[in-house]
Amino acid sequence: MNPQSKAITPRVIVQMLFIIIVIPLLPLLITRRWDWWEAWVYAAFGILGFIISRALVARRHPDLLAERARFAQQTDAKHWDKRLVPLVGLGGGLIPLFAGLDVLLSGGLALGLPVKIAAMAAIFAGYALGAYALLENRFFSGMVRIQTERDHHVISSGPYRWMRHPGYAGALLTYLATPFLLDSAWAFLQVR
User: Are 102 and 185 contacting, i.e. CB atoms less than 8 angstroms apart?
Assistant: First the structure.
């Protein structure tokens, strides 16, 4: 059995389905407003962004997918990072959760179409920057650790030429733009 197949367990599959499908659909699931086009766009960005980036990575760095699937099982990661990573993941789910609750309970902000178009462009740019970082850095693990078994070294190509953490920058851009797309003041409380 190769390391990649060992990393793909039923638990990992359930977690990935929750992250890939349920979290992006949270605003729709909470409000049951199936005509909320902005929430459908948000879900499409999240689901397609994940699938496309991972398909590209699978072709370029198949070992990276196995590394990312095992992130919670790493024994050489710092204890603080083992606690921080799940909290950061939870935080990414709070934005669509609060956006859905805001629209359900208060109706949201009703921002104009130009604001939503700018938000969609920013979300797309955030996903594109994150995917570019993932493609360029075969050590882009889900847990901060020195991967000596994979000949870890500093990456200075692609977006790493001009910024230190392009994956985080892309995520932050997406997090900041999402409340504008989903008309949610409450979601801004989660972007800190």
Answer: yes
Q: What's the predicted TM-score (pTM) here? A: 0.84
| pLDDT, position 99 | 96
Q: Which contiguous run of DSSP H or E holds residue 126?
A: helix 113-136
Dihedral over Cα of 47, 45, 49, 159: its sign: negative
Q: Give the H/E segment covering residue 103.
A: helix 79-106
Neighbours of 16 (CB within 10 A): 14
- The domains found in the chain, sorted by start residue, are 3-190 (1.20.120)
How far apart are alpha carbons 71 and 24 in whole angstroms? Answer: 22
Residue 32 has a pLDDT of 97
Q: How far apart are CA 150 and CA 97, in angstroms?
A: 37
**What does the pLDDT read at residue 1?**
47
**Tens digit of pLDDT for each residue in 113-156?**
999 999 999 999 999 999 999 888 877 776 666 666 776 667 77
DSSP code for 19? I
- Map residue 26 onto helix, strand or coil: helix
Between CA 93 and CA 150 the distance in angstroms is: 31
